[in-house]
Amino acid sequence: MSSALDRLKNLTNKISGYETARKENLKILELLFKDLAIDKKVETFEELFEFKAINLSGASLLSENLGEVKEGKYLQILAISYDKEALVKSKNISLGYFGRAQSVDVDLKNKIVEFIIRFRFEKSFITLEHYYGILENFKVPHV
């Protein structure tokens, strides 16, 4: 019995840790949203999550070489919007252009990379909640 109770306690701690991390992430993300002047392109912070994705050109987002500058490229934050009614369904929108990647101040580049990773972290929760809601339609016993 104690093993089941221990598993429940571990699961509860993990879920509460994720919720705490998510709240902290949102606070920092909103600060970066303003600090990087993305609020000049996207009217409200909440509208940021209407984009399908946000990508980065000019630096790596891979964990093994996170933030590594790509020579000869320009550092730019690109948002991808999707409109199922439009002739061209997806569209790239520049949320921030920062010039040649190798010329950008390291602290600024790091903030840009952090912004995108924090956006993706929150977006993953939104996606999880979306599919969790959809699964409610399948609450039937499977044998």
Care to describe what's here?
The chain is α+β, with helices and mostly antiparallel strands and 143 residues long. It is built from two helices and three strands; from the N terminus they run αβββα. Strands 1-2-3 form a three-stranded antiparallel sheet, covered by helices on one side. α1 packs across α2. The chain is globular and about 60 Å long. It starts with a helix and ends in an 8-residue tail after the last helix. The model has no long low-confidence stretch (mean pLDDT 90).
Strand order of the main beta sheet, please? 1-2-3
Q: What does the average pLDDT come to?
A: 90
Rg is 19 Å
SSE succession: HEEEH
Form type: globular
What's this, in brief?
The protein has 143 residues and is of the alpha+beta class.
Key phrases:
three-stranded antiparallel β-sheet; 143 residues; alpha+beta; 2 helices; single chain; globular
Fold blueprint:
Blueprint: H1 2-35, E1 53-57, E2 74-82, E3 90-100, H2 106-135
Antiparallel strand pairs: 1-2, 2-3
